From TrEMBL:
Residues 10-195 form the Cdc23 domain. One of its GO terms (cellular component) is anaphase-promoting complex. InterPro entries: APC8, TPR-like_helical_dom_sf. This is Cdc23 domain-containing protein. Pfam families: ANAPC8 (PF04049).
Length: 207
């Protein structure tokens, strides 16, 4: 039992580091809470976790992108890593595309708010037009049928699919992000759903 507890402690510490460096703040916070809930004697006696320094190259770009992620400046985080010369590490690849996904989600929310504001003006215009001329403008209701989506989904799907086609290009986090983006794109085809399930299974198998 003691050996199992030591193993769990080391795994939690490793998860805390892996989640934090990738900007997965909520998951990292949960891992930290679980770690802090362990008995003090277990934490004190736990062997120190060897941090993989290759995850954060010496050029400092990953840490800069991570700092932007902490500030919720997702577009800047994505831009920093997108301008890097040379190959990206697995962590850099994930942070680049996760930041781009979050930047797109923020833009989607902004567009949704703009559409709601625009719809409000259309309703007022319709009310005034109806009261004074009994005429319903042809454009009323058209904008209400519009929906917003993440503007980066297409590029994300292309990049993640290309990476998945290369052997061992996507790690567990990358596969999970690919599944999330695929589902967010709203595809309902049976083959796409099967790919979504397969990606989740492959991701869990690597964790």
């Amino acid at each position: 039992m003691r050996n199992e507890l030591a193993t769990w402690t080391a795994q939690l510490a490793a998860a805390r580091e892996a989640l934090s460096i990738r900007g997965l703040s909520h998951a990292a916070s949960f891992a930290c809470e679980l770690y802090a809930s362990l008995p003090l004697s277990v934490r004190e006696n736990a062997s120190s976790v060897q941090v993989d320094h290759s995850a954060a190259p010496s050029d400092g770009l990953l840490l800069l992108a991570k700092s932007y992620m902490d500030l919720q400046e997702y577009a800047r985080a994505s831009h920093v890593l997108g301008q890097k010369q040379g190959a990206l590490t697995d962590v850099e690849f994930f942070v680049l595309h996760y930041a781009r996904y979050l930047a797109g989600e923020r833009r989607k929310e902004q567009l949704s708010m703009e559409m709601k504001t625009h719809s409000g003006w259309i309703i007022l215009t319709f009310a005034a037009s109806f009261l004074f001329t009994y005429h319903i403008p042809s454009h009323v209701g058209a904008s209400q049928k519009q929906t917003t989506s993440n503007p980066h989904l297409k590029d994300l799907l292309r990049d993640l699919a290309d990476a998945d086609a290369s052997p061992n290009q996507l790690d567990a986090f990358g596969l999970y992000l690919y599944a999330v983006v695929l589902k967010q794109a709203g595809f309902e085809h049976t083959t796409v759903h099967a790919l979504y399930v397969q990606l989740l299974q492959r991701s869990l198998a690597l964790f």
